[in-house]
Records
---
Amino acid sequence: MTTPATFLGALVDALRQAGIYNRNDQVPPAAVLWPDKERQWEALAPLLREGLPLLTLGSYDPVQGIGPAYWLRCMIARTLPGDTLPEDATPIIYLPGISRQEIRAVEECPKTLQPLAELQYRGVLWTQRNGRDWTIAAFLQSRDGGLGIEVGADQATRAALQRALVRLADEPVARLRDEAPLRAPFFDGLLTPDEPRSLLLWLNDPEAYRQSVVSEEWAAFCAICKQKYGFDPTREEFVSVAESLGQRYGGWYQVWERYEEAPHSYPRIPELLRQAGPQQLSLFERSEVWPQSNEREESDLRKKLAALAQSASEEARVALYELEQRHGFRREWVWARVGKAPLAVALGSLVELAKATEHALGGITLESMVVAYADTGWRADAAVLGALAAVESLEDVNAVKAAVRAVYRPWLEATAHAFQQRVKAEAPDQHRFGAPVQTANGTCIIFSDALRYDVGQRLVSALGEQGYRCEIVPRLAALPPVTATAKPAISPVANLLTGQHSPGLTPTVAATASQLTAETLRKLLDDAGYQVLRDDNELGDPSGRAWTEMGAIDGYGHQHGWKVAHHVSGELHALQDRIEALLGHGWAQVIVVTDHGWLLLPGNLPKTNIPEHLTAVRKGRCARLKPLSKTDHQTVDWFWDDDVRIAVAPDICCYEASKEYEHGGLSPQECIVPVITVSAKA
């Protein structure tokens, strides 16, 4: 006979074996009597009832197979209408609180047991070969009717075995043999299989943990704490226990590793560690464990970053590399994962910014400059957003802003100046800037306002991680790169629009000479055969073509400046969800387009002036000149009318003061936009 897989299976087999008889010369036993004076097995009765014809002596509860002696006699005789015992099965009568001796002493046995006493002659008793009741330990150890597995004889082991009985039921017999001799820590471990997590839950909220476990689990937890970790959880020693956690000796190292895996699950532990840690740290003492060590390092980094406000770009770049050597590894500390090391996190992006701005953006022609920016140049802009997104407090924000300006501003100015010179030297056909997107059936266009190239790269990366096939292609936005001009230019109905009769920067409808509005654009798209999906939940008919709009990056940037770095993540999540919903609905592909990018310089872009009397319309970085007006600022033709001249602010200057976020001029960040094509997963 094969060994049963689990302890419970072995017990079931043993009870079944007790009822086996020789059919050639014996009558079937009326029942198997199972005495258990100490009630050791009582917790397993509900589990055993699932696989055995088990009846239990006790207060009347027929649903659970429990009842007094006369009811048990009737069940054995199968005279009750509610009898559910199999006809060919030998009933097993479990007798909690009753010993074999009490059954044997017919004249002296309790009256409540007397109706069952005679069954010892018509049935069989399940006891050890020596006549004693089976105990749990005996069943585990005995080689004659048991499992033959060595168990500790001390009282702590017996107590642990009793409280772990229900968990023991599911343990494989093979594992029990491998772990022998079985002692208290093994059985308590069954009740607290994840010791480190149990310790952390208790340390985080002792009262809540105590109420969340049953008495057996609590007793096992206390025993483990005393035996393995050297403290008694019934005494309030929270700070001293936290000190042991911080010191990470012995088994506490595993507990610390578990804390590092999910620190957000234990929000009260940092304060305990603060109380338990050393009050004074030496100048060179640094520990990832104590919160105050991390805080001291953050304070030091804050001062060093803020001091870069007075540094030249190359000096600041060198300083950032040195700071990375001292603080970069703190991004691996647990405090970074719980948001307590924002400057160490921001430093990672600042170092990327320093690397990306070591050299000016390459390209001796406009086309090669577009390629260079789309290849690597956008990483500088992405690094700025990453650094700003890592910080929130005023002190931290100011420190990061100082570092960003020191390294980023010179590169940004040089990049914008070079781009403007390429445009001026080549005098390119303005319609290279801004080309409408045309699509076939099965394609939905999403217009996302101000999806700058670096932000578009983040979208492509996120979709790629989900298995979608993505292609990102750089294009030049229509000039000037403002929504009124560039959004209609990228739309599939651009050929229906003109700049004639327009006094501003918005085109008119060629057929009617009326000013283009958002509603008019939708009507033109609808007439051209595009489904206009106005609601974010509207998915349309995938067999046709569609246009939909979403995104508020531009509005947020104009209103909140540098804080757009925090806002972008939410916009990207929403855009990704929309793309996935459309593709999931059956669209063959989704094309994401945008109107323009933007400049962002913490602490404000520099201001320049253009006489107001020269301009018909003035924006942050561009202005429509009045006819015959002259200016020394660079000019370009308006996308919608070659006879209209647009003045653009030099380098990264603005025509308005106090602007951290702006667009409308000539720079790669404003003019080179992504067109992203997303197809369904392979």
Note: Residues 291-426 form one domain.
---
Amino acid sequence: MAKLPPIAEVPDSERTPLVECLLELIAALREDNHRLVQEVDVLKEEVARLKKHKGKPKIRPSALEGKKNKGNKSKRGKNKRKGGDGATERVVDETVKVPAPDVPTGSRFKGYTDFVVQELVIKTRTTCYKLEKWRTPDGRILTAPVPSGAVAVQGGHFGPTLVSWVLYQYHHAQVTEPLIAEQLREWGIEISTGQVHRLIVDGKEPFHREKDEILRAGLQVSDYIHTDDTGARHRGKNGVTTHIGNDLFAWFQSTESKSRINFLELLRAGYSDYVLNGEALEYMLAQKLPKQPLAKLAEAEGHVFADKEAWQQVLRDKGIDNERHVRIATEGALLGSALHHGLKPDMGIISDDAGQFNVLVHALCWIHVERNLAKLMGFNDEQRAALEGVRSTLWKLYRDLKVYKQQPTSEAKQQLSARFDALCATKTCFVTLNRALRRMKHNKAELLLVLERPELPLHNNLSAGDIREYVKKRKVSGPTRSEAGRRCRDTFASLKKTARKLGVSFWHYLLDRTRGDGQLPALPELIQARAGSA
């Protein structure tokens, strides 16, 4: 790919607004061209490697292994000395006294020096249960049941520890099914890759039910939620996985669409009805649904329609077939259903600037706003200085908003609002930067919602962090191919993330559920208890 030629310097006398815009566009094109040249070079080297040509492609390191790992070194070391995250008091299973060699005559015994060694014992155990069989006088065959706890719940001929280990390796350690099967066979377990797959996806209804209850409990006790979505291919087609959560829970659901209808369907938390209540009609009015279809729907106010089929029949009966009108009416009925089933009308929704999440009380992420400014490229020193000045002012405002959250006052509220207006009104020599500031001004209500509700977060980093776990799983194991596989991926991602937020060991959680012990409370109950104590 050819590189763009250098551009001649334009005299200041000829720098009209149109010329300024063209110069910025050229600068952006040059930056994109430079990036594309680098990507093409990497792809060429990769093709050469696959064709077994000489040379090795230069693959840049993953961004996941950057500053985050470096900054956590001292913390990890500190955790090791304490026994690790969530470690309990160490239990010594065996004490061995070691005599000192060649002790001189006349020496006095001064006790012992402890030297603790931790070891992991891995061994297989195969048990054959001889189940008695009896023929009764009436010809029936009675067979003794397998002892309780001998096999995992829905585990077939495999014990609960083995099944828990398979689930832990697949959903937590990101190990693929073939590697899990290979590891087990090296330890002496007779198992196929197909059997490993069945242990991962079959018989998981109790887990699915608990996952569904997580969202209901989380929405019931929360004043705000974070949300985001990411691509998730399924059966060779593009799809999307939506995350909903906060500090108490994380919940994932994969669907085919990332529309607002899809998001509102998820907020119903498992319910399938459509409700025409006052809130639904208010939403339709706010979305500028024309008076005629709005009046027809208002005639059915207070009605609950059992499912999608019933709702679509209502729309047909009332002659509402315009695509936009159907969409707005459906969004309103879905919102009405979510509110009817307990969703708080003032629920805060923190997201990036994706339009599908703009419902109820919507707040924007400041990190995403600043990221848009960071993408701008000034093509001279004056523009670069203007961009740096605006970003510095924005970060100072962001830090002061964090202080305001701790000590909100009416005086500080007015000052911060005025500073935001002054920032958005800044005129620079950078036309594209001026446009970005105007967009910020348009989003003032959502960016400064924290002035009205200081409990709301200023960014959406929690959702981005939670969904990154799902992205890693997608990169390792690829797209899903069955409905059961997709459902299990959503379920165990939700259960694992929620357990860790609640301080529950995911390993102990899996053991408890596969054994059927029931000693660990259900995660929805822990969510409610944590919210009550907070």
Note: The mean pLDDT is 88.
